[in-house]
Amino acid sequence: MQVDALTASHSHSPGPSPALRPIDGSPSSSPIPIPGARRYSASLGQGFQHGSPPPLSSPFGNGGAAKNAKKSDELYPHRVIITTYPDQTGIKPVPLQWGGPTPAERGPVICSRLPSNIKLRNAIGAHSGSYATYRALAIALRTLSPTHKPDFSHTEPPVSIPFQPAWADPAKIVSLDPWGHVVPQVFARQIEQGLDIRPSIAVTKAHIKMSEIDEAARLGRLPLDGKIVLQSRPLEIPKEVLKDPSMDPHQVSVEGYMEKVLDPGVELNVSKAAVEPVWFLPGVAARFGITEQLLRRALFEDTGGMYPELITRPDIKVFLPPIGGLTVYIFGPPNYMWDPTKELTLRVHDECNGSDVFGSDICTCKPYLVFAIEDAVRCAQRGGVGVIVYFRKEGRALGEVTKYLVYNLRKRGGDSADKYFKSTEMIAGVKDMRFQALMPDILHWLGIRKIDNMISMSDMKYDAIVSSGIPILRRYDLPEHLIPPDSRVEIDAKIAAGYFSSGRQVTEADLVKTVGRTWEEAEH
Fold this sequence. Notes:
single chain, 13 strands, globular, 524 residues, hydrolase, eight-stranded mixed β-sheet, three-stranded mixed β-sheet, GTP-binding, GTP_cyclohydro_II, alpha/beta, RibA-like_sf, GTP binding, 29% helix, 11% strand
């Protein structure tokens, strides 16, 4: 049947659609109960013969529609399967015991909808988090085969993150797959047998270079050590660039180039891990103090019904959500992270593209990040280890569009600290959606048992980490001289709201006195 001719029949059905009904005629077991909800069936090309054009007119004409329909048939020759049910004939998920102490006892995470895997799936969702949509687009455009089998040769981690006791505790780690970085190795046999099992974590090594770190080294705050802080290689400048008299001085500054030739700065030797979210739904629900049924319903309803199996497959407990993941940067020997005798410095940082990348001064995100990287390196140089965890939670997980709308409201309405949180609530309905309860999972995966130095003023992050069983011996915030003037509104509002501050104290009465820069002051 043609994918392009898909029509949905919304007639009430007491059970799954005919295409999904067990062939033995047995009734399907009840999915997650939804009061007042009905079951609907969906049929493909209902009332149309195979190869006929779609019922609606096409701006490309019938010829183009027929051609596209043929391509769709070739790419997806099977019927559309909107959802599945636990007791359908042939449905037999690969066993998965969350918190299993070995890969064999835990089992692989399988979410693939390939015909060879769909009846064996034990997870809802798709790999690659928020990038899964681009993968689907690549398949539709035929730049990627849906049956492409990755070659994982030589992709194993160059840095060992070995088993930690928390991996075997189903309550300690509920938002990532602790075996995700060694999938090609520990599930090699199952992959060879045809199961589509993919890594959700990748570990690698790199050098990072930042102009702020170059400056810290030039000022003597970060000495060269040949292990963590390394001398960058000199730039090689083509002779024609230096000798070309017609070159506009604004295009090439010979003096600036020569300065970098003489002092190319430094780079930092790091180990790092990229982590995609993998949620164990019962554990996530328990972490937030809600029922699994409510969690599933909310995830289904408020994503536009994206994943029906959240409702129809209560037997599947693992969900790969379409959200951003996180990256871990490790300065110093990674094995020091699980050695309680070693000093450990940590910052958990939530993404802020405007500040972290482009240097916007309305917040303290980039100054905090750079300060934390410096302190992490200094800790490693003292014989410890520094860890930066970077979460993709742009704009307090409200998104950048919402954040910019809040900026507009603030700048037009008088940008004072007493209105800081209220401005966000007026637009988003809530001041923060990062919900740090899941955040400590990555620390448990890394084997961190105590934190000597926590660089953060967030009470939510502190409470989440400590309540998860990891003590924090010392916490400190951003030094006053590193706070941009226009971000004073944010800092004072947070201090007055109860965020940690090692120095300045701010009362509610003080907030009206802290005012940010207006747009007029910034215009030239």
